[in-house]
Write a structure and sequence with these properties.
Layout lengths: L3 H20 L6 H8 L3 H7 L3 H24 L6 H13 L3 H16 L8 H6 L1 H14 L8 H22 L5 H19 L4
C-alpha cells in the first residue's frame, strides 16, 4: 500500500486552506479545489465527501497542532506563569502560514457567514481560549497581574501576537517586507513590556 492517498489529501488541504482564507467558504467550490489540485472532483470527494468536511479539516489540522504546542507551554508548571506567558507570546507571534490561513479564514467567516463556524466554535472554546484563560488564572494566582487585568488579557494577547502577522500577510506586497517584520516583532515586544514580562 502506498502513501498516495495521504499525499493527495495533504495537497488538497494545502490548496483548499489558501482558497478558504482568500475567498471564504461560500467563495470556494469543490470543483475549484479539485482544479487547483489537478485532480478529478471524484477523487476530491473520495477524501472529503462534503465541502463542510474539507473546510473543517483545513481549520482543525493546523489549529489542533497549535493548541497542542500551546498546551505544553501553559501546562509547564516548572516555570512561573510570566515565563509561560512569554513563551506563549513567542509561539503565537511565530504563527506559520497554515495557522495564519486558519485565522484569516475564521475572521472572514465571522464577518461574512458565521453559520459556517458553528462546528468549529466549540473547538476554539475548548482549545486556545480555555488554555489562555487558565494561564491568566495562574498569572493572577501568582500575583503577576492584578485580578482586574485578567478579563482584558485574552484579547490583548491575541491582538499583540497573531493579529500583526495576519495584517502583514493579508496586505502582502502592499507592505514592504521590512515594515511587516517590524510590525510582527514590535507588537509582541510591546505586549511583553506592557505586561511586565521579563525577557
Amino acid at each position: 500500500m502506498t502513501n498516495a492517498p495521504t499525499e493527495t489529501a495533504a495537497r488538497i488541504l494545502e490548496k483548499a486552506a489558501v482558497a478558504f482564507a482568500r475567498y471564504g467558504f461560500d467563495g470556494v467550490s469543490m470543483r475549484d479545489v479539485a482544479q487547483a489540485c489537478d485532480i478529478s472532483p471524484g477523487l476530491l470527494t473520495y477524501h472529503f465527501p462534503k465541502k463542510s468536511d474539507l473546510f473543517h479539516a483545513c481549520v482543525a489540522g493546523p489549529y489542533e497542532r497549535l493548541v497542542g504546542e500551546l498546551r505544553a507551554l501553559v501546562d509547564d508548571r516548572s516555570v512561573p506563569a510570566l515565563t509561560r506567558l512569554d513563551r506563549v507570546i513567542a509561539r503565537l507571534a511565530a504563527t506559520n502560514d497554515a495557522e495564519t490561513n486558519v485565522v484569516r479564514t475564521v475572521f472572514r467567516e465571522v464577518f461574512t457567514a458565521p453559520e459556517h463556524l458553528k462546528d468549529i466554535a466549540p473547538m476554539f472554546l475548548a482549545g486556545h481560549i480555555a488554555l489562555l484563560f487558565r494561564l491568566v488564572q495562574d498569572l493572577v494566582a501568582e500575583g503577576a497581574i492584578p485580578p482586574e487585568l485578567g478579563p482584558g488579557l485574552l484579547p490583548l494577547i491575541m491582538g499583540g501576537t497573531v493579529l500583526p502577522r495576519l495584517i502583514a500577510t493579508s496586505l502582502g506586497d502592499a507592505v514592504p517586507h521590512a515594515v511587516a517584520e517590524v510590525l510582527m516583532t514590535a507588537a509582541p515586544n510591546a505586549l511583553r513590556h506592557l505586561l511586565g514580562v521579563p525577557r
